[in-house]
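Why run this: before we spend reagent on co-expression, it is cheaper to look at a predicted model of the complex and decide which construct boundaries make sense. The entries below are exactly what would go into the expression plan.
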Amino acid sequence: MNADLINQLQLVLPESRILTGDQLKDRYSHIWYMEDSLNALCVTLPESTEQVSSILKICHKNNAKVVVHGGLTNLVGGTETNADEVVISLERMNQIEEIDSDSRSITVQSGVILETIHEAVADLGLLFPLNFGARGSAQIGGIISSNAGGLRVLKYGMTRKLVLGLEAVMADGAIINSMKKIIKDNSGYDLKQLFIGSEGTLGIVTRAVLKLEEAPSSRNVAYLAVNDYKSVVKLLKFFDQGLAGKLSGFELIWRNSYEQMTSTSDAVRPPLPYDYEYYILIEALGSQSEQDQAEFQSLLETTVEKEMILDAVMAHSPSDVEWFFRIREDVNNLTDHMKHDQHFDISLPVALIGGYIKDAYKKLKLIKGVEQIYAFGHVADGNIHFIIGKENTGDSLRLEINDIIYSGLKAIGGSVSAEHGIGLHKKAYLNISRTPEEIQLMKTLKTAMDPNGILNPGRIFDV
Amino acid sequence: MNADLINQLQLVLPESRILTGDQLKDRYSHIWYMEDSLNALCVTLPESTEQVSSILKICHKNNAKVVVHGGLTNLVGGTETNADEVVISLERMNQIEEIDSDSRSITVQSGVILETIHEAVADLGLLFPLNFGARGSAQIGGIISSNAGGLRVLKYGMTRKLVLGLEAVMADGAIINSMKKIIKDNSGYDLKQLFIGSEGTLGIVTRAVLKLEEAPSSRNVAYLAVNDYKSVVKLLKFFDQGLAGKLSGFELIWRNSYEQMTSTSDAVRPPLPYDYEYYILIEALGSQSEQDQAEFQSLLETTVEKEMILDAVMAHSPSDVEWFFRIREDVNNLTDHMKHDQHFDISLPVALIGGYIKDAYKKLKLIKGVEQIYAFGHVADGNIHFIIGKENTGDSLRLEINDIIYSGLKAIGGSVSAEHGIGLHKKAYLNISRTPEEIQLMKTLKTAMDPNGILNPGRIFDV
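The model came back. Tokens follow.
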């Protein structure tokens, strides 16, 4: 049966575009584990939407399971593959098809790497605002399938808001072409929404039209410090109102995380002393350098006058900006001294974050085996990351920690995954974020759109 | 069977919440045709999600068709009802459940009127940015079901971008509760997207959590004039870049439309002379009165210096602002002198609008029976409205006009409905906006989620 399947695939793909056996040795299923060879029935490397469609028609007819590969940076097991699974890797569909600077859109195949998009539009004074650490590897198809977020969601939105048009291939090979570059289209169901964030379980994204923004030319950055969470919320509202559309970052760092983040080298020396409970990194993007700086400074002064903050420092040069952001972004400063680490990506209503994290710290400290607890995150988006250092990788400790971080989320309308998705790794906790009726409806959709259950099987839920 | 159905409904609803027979005389199915009594089997007036669920369970079991009523302002026949159909009107579910000014969200039942939401949040310095002419009647359930747009889409997005959480009841009575007030949630499929813009065919929206914005406090408005469409696009990019998030309106009015809009009374006298081909109404919303005005004025001056415009006038008082907007918004100035009128709401890529409309004018002028042609619209959103004056209401003339406006849209990736939806009236043109595979997938979804086809039957497409 497997040999027969490969024979059938060979009829629709050039020989060099199907890898089997020893050819899989150089392939991996995650960018962090490049030393581990890929376990798969075969890897197919389509170069067109029609080839993706042909491959899927064959897999659908043969009930062959398919796992979709992009840049392999997924954080929840989305690209883990077994020996009986066909890999479809979009890496050869890596063409930028059009940049339309009047309609502010770029049309790309799904194998294009995020950073390539950034570079392609920069010279035109345009910006594709999605940005995160893995930009040099992550492909746009995977980014769309996982509705990635990142650093500038506050101003520009998650991936879902940046997709104007989409092409996807369904499990049976049908090509759904919704490749419009228009902003408004209320003609029937907005089908692209089904493929964004569904982790490749409802269809394979093959092409997209992405929204571009006019690039900002001014950037103002500061660290602020306060001692109570209520002040954090008040400051968020104050700057969001005062900066009227320019506020692009509002990152919160808890005191102990800040101390660790700023203590490993001079490159991350502390911009503010270790005297406060909360440190806020704030960023504004605008287009009038002088006025924007004056406005930002004046807003900061108002927070001092009104005693809304205890301390503040503004970046005065590009190297200051880099320094300020390096503190927040270089997660290695938190993990390097850990024996083992466990990461979280939860979201909850902004007003409730302070109390929730306080409570979690208290409970985590009581657990034997928990050695470090660091919280920080995109607080304006209600999105908090936790990194827990622990003494062993056993299931018992892992589950105990999960339980503390996740269990209170259901009652307050939070989510076990703000950005990273569910994949294979968070399946057991889906029912904290979602009701039984919601999960049933997900299954109804999956069954209707992929009746043989071949696409990224077992991701998000089991049918 | 009908009597039996009503008996069953009476078991789950108080007597006063089911209207039949003569009680329907005071009801209508559209706010523009209040003199026409409603034709329906009965009207049900649920007061809770559970009652909506109970009604739908009965209708599902009995294969009884259901039409959902909100504020009855729909423009594409969404609420037209027949004698064998059960109406579910959400008017009694009109409670604002919570305003959370920290998380910037409002939780409402779906019968709440848009203007009521505006008023409820204004005192808190917050804004629900969705706004359009029917705000005094339109209910939020219908607004969500039709993904309404309106005046400030450029800055704040259509309804889809403003819905954080949603509750909907499916055809079989299952309640899908996704009432989270969080901004990021990548835990499984984003089910609310299915109910937004699907015109009540996949479920009935019963409650929602809506995103609020900090209210802006400065508003700058101007009219600009140019003679070629390329300059329009250039100006859009210039102001979008220069105003960095504050640009909230960029409305284009074609010369002949402008002449008509500004000639009926002193209240709409022309702010600029009748010397140009295109008139642009531009609006910026900010929060620093003095700086914002100076910045807006300085950008205007730059457009003069760089010869990007031929003429401009800025509003210098709130009454100027009102005057400038009245010109654009009071559509009666266009329709009052028409024998009959036909309206359009198309969208297309921004860069192609100039040529497309020019061509449409040329073709329309050749048609016997076409008496006036007025184009104007939200050009930044690629959304143009056409109002055609014509001598008769015959099908032949109507279809001939439709053909000219719609037929070129397919080739350039446009849409026959930017904002208003498809409903019953635009069904014949759905295939211009969407491919056969897309329409097939819509039917697959409809069949999976409403297997008996009871919800708003015949809207968008026939199964």
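The mean pLDDT of chain B is 96. The domain at 338-422 of chain B is CATH 3.30.70.2740 (Alpha-Beta Plaits). Bring this page to Monday's planning discussion.
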